[in-house]
Fold this sequence. Notes:
By secondary structure, this protein is mostly helical. 60% of the residues lie in helices and 2% in strands.
Amino acid sequence: MNHDSTIRRVLALILLTILAPLALGQDYLPECPPDRDPALWDLMNRAIDIMYENDPMGIGPLLGDESRNDQLGNNSASAIEQNTQRFAELLGELKSIDRSGFTDRDHLSADLLIYQWEQGQRLAQFKQWQMPVTSIGGPQVWLPQMGDSVPLITREHYADYLTRLKRVPIVVGDHIDNMRLGIAENRVPPRVVVEPAVDQAMAQANPDFREDPTQSPFYAPFNNLDHNDPLAIEAREIITNRIIPVYLELAVFLNNEYLPACRDTIGAAQGVDGIDSYSALITSHTTLPQYDANAVHQIGLDEVKRIKSEMMDVIEQTDWAGNNTFWASADAKFQAFTEYLRTDPRFYYTNPDDLLNGYKVMCKDIDPELITLFGHLPRLPYGVRPLPGLTAESAPTAYYYPGSLSSARAGYFVANLTKLDQRPTYEMMALTLHEAVPGHHFQIAIAQEIENQHPIRKTMGFTGFVEGWALYAEKLGLEMGDEENGLYSDPYSNFGRLNFEMWRAMRLVVDTGMHAKGWTRDQGVQFMQNNSALSLHNIEAEIDRYIGWPGQATGYKMGEIEIIKLRRSIEDQLGDDFDLRAFHDELLADGALPLPVLVQKINRWADTQRHE
């Protein structure tokens, strides 16, 4: 460890500790409503306060509190292990609470907390925090973007953000220390997912920023102030003297010390924690413990076969098919068609602004159709904006960044506007439905608006539900509008929808293939090329994402399958009395749930509908 940099971080931590308030008030913790159990409510208050310490940027807006707007949380190994122990104690206390007076809401909250905390304890043994850096995650990715995620309205907000800038070297230093612990325990990620992070870290240590700190993304919020403002002057000094040096330290560490220690293998089962860690991650992301890697792999193969057949039918509806009628085999025809989609200029914008505006137009087309499928629409607005250039080159096609009503911050569908020849127009509608409405923004915004609910419930984001819903939302485009195939009236756009569904089905095959069955990276790339029209750049970016985030990619298709299965079951149960708007409203009414809990909840609702 570099002795000078360690002293620098320790001194910074001591100074910030001295400057911090001696005690933070807890006025932000909600009072127990009269119809809720006081013991359970108190436990949830203590739990979310621990979470607030750990993630002030994420939890503060949910609590409507700004008392920790100057903090970034403690990412040190000791703090992480202490929090694991604290939640183990809370879990034991929760299991011992007398439930005899619980309402249905209390039972649901307790069951969800037990589920989540038990999963957390299971995952804790694998110490994922020792591998915090990949091409899509780590302090080189999320910290430079924090100016987009904090309130910046009052002068106090800017002062708080300035204090957060002072804490950046501490956070980066903690991550470096954690990675060194990982090296010592042989717990390191595949080299291929860390290599891009070196350039990402160097981007924050850009020598141009030393000459002109206003170019740094960390300075962006201060462009709203006069450059001679004392806050802006101090921000430039912090960027020059603290932030640039620590990111240079991170880049040097990653390149000289971490990369040589990273492993050449790519599978989670090939890491120090073996197949057990991957099995735990699959269960965590899908929330479906009945499926192991082999079962998920086979489901993926079956879905790929089904979707491929539907894709061939849609190809016949295109103008391309009319001009290309003779092929030696269906596979040859499919490959020729997908090559046409990858290369013909008609499917690609040449100006980033045109691509961004295209997404905005699609949002406007979707918005008025939502009322046909939902009775309850979210109050929180959303927008569309570009993915920051610092991560765009190696990032997937899009993300969703949640907003907050209490912090007056809209949600955002964030689109990747780089490599325009890899961003086909025929995929845009499905992507917009997934990331914006009725996908991520719609579901997450409604969860934030649940009334008389403890805010800890708003922190629950089970991948199988959240991503399963967003993939299901893509298919809802078929049920919007008056045209045949709804918003996918153009056969190329409908093929794009199927291509996106194929993408998620292939994830089941490729993720389990690489992490549990010994597949190579090239095998994964080839499988996705053979079965979709995805561009090579997107395929490679996705493959590297799966390598660096084991199991997460399985949550999408497994979740969608469960939601579709549930809808069909309720349609059969209720027959002519089935109300799709009411079904969707009930599906989203309690926020994200583990899928088995969701099934039980919706079946109880269907029983009520039948009796009524």
